[in-house]
Amino acid sequence: MVSSAVGRLSSKLSFSTQQPLDDEWQVGGRYKVVQRTTVWSTPDLEGEKVCEVLPQDNVLLLSINNTLGNGWDVPRGLIMPPATNSASNAGWIALESAGRLDVVHIGPVQRRRLTGSWEMKARYFVQHPTTLREGPTLTSKKIGELSPEAEVLVLELGLSNEGCHNVRLRARVSTDSGIIGWMSPQTKCGDQLLYPVNLLSKEAVKLHQTYSSTRKTLTPGEKIPWRAGGKYRLLEKTHLLEEVVLSSAKRAQLAPGTMLTVIDVHHTECATLGWCPCAFVAVDDGPQKSRTGWVRCCHKAGHDILDRRDHSEYDRVITKLRNTQAISPDSSRSPEPAPTATEATAVAPSVEPIKISDLTFLNPEPQQLPLKTPRAQSQEPLAVEMKERMDPVLPKDTMESENGAKTPKEIPSDPHLFLNKLKSMEMGAQEDKQVVDKTTFQGSICSCSTCTCSRPT
User: Fold this and answer.
1) Parent domain of 59
2) In a shared domain, residues 256 and 112
3) Residue 16 belongs to what H/E stretch?
4) What is residue 127's DSSP assignment?
5) Phi then psi for 313, rounded to 5 degrees?
6) Gap between the Cα atoms of 43 and 337, Å rounded
7) Alpha helices (runs of H) in 86-219, residue ranges in sequence order
8) What is the mean pLDDT of residues 177-184?
9) Could you read off the pLDDT of 51-103 as tens digits, one per residue?
10) Is 80 helix (H, G, I), strand (E, B) or coil?
11) Number of domains present in the structure of the chain
12) Of 38, 35, 36, 89, which is closest to residue 60 (Cα–Cα)?
């Protein structure tokens, strides 16, 4: 009887030791309590007692504070007890015990994140309507609302600390519309405003295969979501083709969940869809790592088989944010005087929400230089020619006398003939000016027989 109980206990212990621990604690992670412990109001684990957490409780880690204890670095964490706890207020506990680094259960909490943890660089979809605010505090300016099924990318995890009874985990997120703001992943009562599955992980493949409502389909006129240089996950098995043609030779078969880097995107004819987007890719992991070839982005039924969520989006957004924040006023300017007491109590001006479209790119695309038009190349010779033809000092022709001296020709005695000649020359100059450039309208009336310019209305 005793031996069987010992056997069952040893099997449980061996099973627990086989599961590796996380390398470090992560803010936003959920962890299992393995020892009964007291939660305190301060990180020195003294002062007011907040509550107690029991074995098998799941706690949410809000913040980490490393302090020295008995010569060891003992991390202490600000945790949120489970909603079932009567107090359910945040408090501090010792996450590890000094000198017991070789034991699986280090301290009262096991350093292994559980399902439902929140992560940075992760993408989630909204479960319930939630408010997007300008700052991490719950009283900061409201900048928008998020509707169910919208997706957000987590850029940063922070804390809203407005008193011991109103401590909340906050997430700085980027929306698909380009707005960046702060929200709560879950309420104080534990209701999850975001669905706790990272859509950039392999769990996205399970969602795609289980729930057909999560599958996305390209619609006519929609912009192709896959971009060159982006990293995307394959949602269904497919073949790596030698050419962009769907009937070309197959190089290999790729499994669902494989990560691909898109190099180029083209359209090819498809018997069922008419036209199907295909991407030339490099395989990033799995048995076919480093191989290249073409894959179709959409199934013949119409839905995506290459996930349209770009795994390099976080790096792009952070780079743009840092580049924008790096733009500072000229350091040579003298500092402004300190505000007076009256100015210090004035209300700060409101700040508009940040949009990704307003941010400065680190490597802006070169602007296209304007093309030279035929008129720009021949404008100066035309002006000289018109000046010569319209100069009232005409005529310049000369005649040679008997003694070899050159004298100007006589101006016609009839002034009407001279004026008619000037008018005809002026009309010819205007016609030459209008036919110089056939792409830009120069006057109110165009006399070009093959003119392509735009007449003003």
Assistant:
1) 21-117
2) no
3) helix 2-18
4) S
5) -65, -40
6) 39
7) 203-210
8) 93
9) 899 999 999 999 998 765 544 567 889 999 987 766 668 899 988 876 544 44
10) strand
11) 4
12) 89
